[in-house]
Specification:
Elements: H1 2-5, H2 7-37, H3 47-64, H4 70-81, H5 98-125, H6 128-134, H7 139-145, H8 155-190, H9 195-239, H10 245-279, H11 292-298, E1 303-308, H12 316-337, E2 343-349, E3 353-361, H13 375-386, E4 390-396, E5 399-407
Helix pairs in contact: 2-3, 2-4, 2-5, 2-8, 3-5, 5-8, 6-8, 9-10, 9-12, 9-13, 12-13
Length: 416
């Protein structure tokens, strides 16, 4: 009985009755058209006319289902009432391709056709069930509602009429359950995502992942560098707090300046990401190679800088990524070698590329492995690849070298 009258069966029955209600405007319009072609005084009571009108109403419903909003409405109704099998996915959003529109039209027409049949059975046969059950016990029902022919007005027939009423109700419920199960089984096929929908969803996921990776790179390189510098400066100040107050004052001033600049960079990063979300384009904010002098002054390590070429001619997108690569290289040198680590930085602007090479001594002891560490160098490689370049880091001639080559022409990978 659960299959016929359980909660899922009742919801599917309601879904079918909703389909019958949606069919009525098309049915009435088709009835008028049929009546104009074949005038008849019994148009609204003639079963053949009604069947013809029912058949003519279905193509009209299919045509309206070709419009894009039909799919989300059908999907919402199916999710709420149809009892879709677990693990089966339905599509989101309006139909954008011919295949999706055709599938939606088939679903909508099937829903309305089965809904019209089940609704007609429900309206016509459901009242008979209680009438048959009450037939042996009520003369009013026998005389007013169900007028049995004399040959059928016999005690044994009246005794069987309650069973006939129950059978009628079971037939209606069984037809509704069968039609509802049929719709639920076809919903993932007709309302499920098409290959184009899956491709669009994959592109959206890739775009979201790229945005998260970009946010991680920007925050790691800007905020991470500042925190590394502040940590080392605060540790050095703590060790000489009593013996060298002047150094402590200088360290605190450097910490203040670093944090102030980092707050500005953080605002810049958030503004860049907000520009991406609102306009779908790469932001134009953020420090570039022209701000390199300030970075080197406050980075916390002595840096020997050599520049060849004209950094001012580097495109803005490339210049910003080059700045972040240098910043990450300095953070690594500071984190693994300490404040006394000397760094050699060479920037060469060629006709087609900008080359960045950073060398610093290898630490005396292997660097401690931090949980989740290594994102900085991975971010450097990602920045280079996104511009069509390459980057690598590792031991080289007794030193640690970070080398990156970025093409000046990005071929649309990054916008200015």
């Amino acid at each position: 009985m659960t299959l016929l009258f359980g909660r899922r069966a009742r919801l599917r029955w309601l879904h079918l009755i909703l389909g019958g209600a949606l069919l009525m405007p098309y049915f009435l319009a088709a009835l008028v058209v049929v009546g104009s072609l074949r005038p008849s005084p019994v148009l609204f009571t003639s079963l053949p006319h009604q069947l013809v009108s029912f058949v003519c109403a279905l193509p009209m419903a299919a045509v309206t289902a070709l419009f894009a909003p039909a799919r989300p409405l059908s999907v919402d109704a199916a999710r709420a009432l149809c009892g879709i099998p677990a693990g089966r996915q339905l599509a989101d959003g309006p139909s954008r391709t011919r295949q999706a529109r055709v599938r939606t039209a088939v679903w909508y027409t099937t829903h309305l056709a089965l809904g019209g049949i089940v609704s007609a059975m429900t309206l016509a046969l459901s009242p008979l069930a209680p009438a048959f059950v009450a037939l042996p016990f009520s003369e009013t029902v026998r005389d007013s509602w169900i007028r049995l022919p004399e040959e059928l007005d016999r005690p044994w027939i009246l005794a069987l009429s309650p069973f006939a009423g129950i059978a009628v109700l079971l037939v209606v419920a069984g037809c509704a359950a069968l039609a509802g199960a049929l719709l639920a089984g076809r919903a993932p096929v007709l309302l499920g995502p098409t290959p184009e929908d899956r491709l669009a969803a994959a592109e959206r996921r890739a775009a979201d992942l790229a945005a998260r990776n970009r946010l991680a790179r920007e925050l790691h390189d800007s905020v991470g560098h500042a925190l590394s510098a502040v940590t080392l400066q605060a540790g050095a100040a703590r060790r000489v707090l009593d013996s060298d107050p002047e150094f402590v004052r200088e360290a605190l001033a450097a910490i203040e300046e670093t944090t102030r600049r980092t707050v500005g960079e953080l605002d810049s990063v958030l503004g860049l990401l907000r520009s991406d979300e609102e306009h779908g384009t790469a932001g134009t904010t953020g420090p570039a190679l022209d701000a390199l002098d300030g970075l080197l002054k406050r980075c916390g390590v002595p840096v020997s800088l050599s520049v060849r070429g004209e950094p001012g001619t580097v495109p803005a997108a490339v210049s910003r990524e080059a700045y972040r690569i240098v910043q990450e290289g300095l953070s690594n040198a500071l984190r693994h070698g300490g404040a006394g680590t000397a760094v050699e930085l060479r920037i060469t602007v060629l006709a087609t590329d900008v080359e960045i090479v950073m060398d610093n001594p290898l630490p005396e002891r292997p660097a401690a492995v931090r949980p989740g560490g290594g994102r900085g160098l991975r971010g450097v490689a990602e920045r280079a690849v996104l511009l069509g370049g390459r980057a690598q880091a590792g031991p080289h001639d007794g030193a640690w070298r970070l080398a990156a080559r970025l093409p000046l022409r990005t071929d649309g990978r990054e916008k200015k």
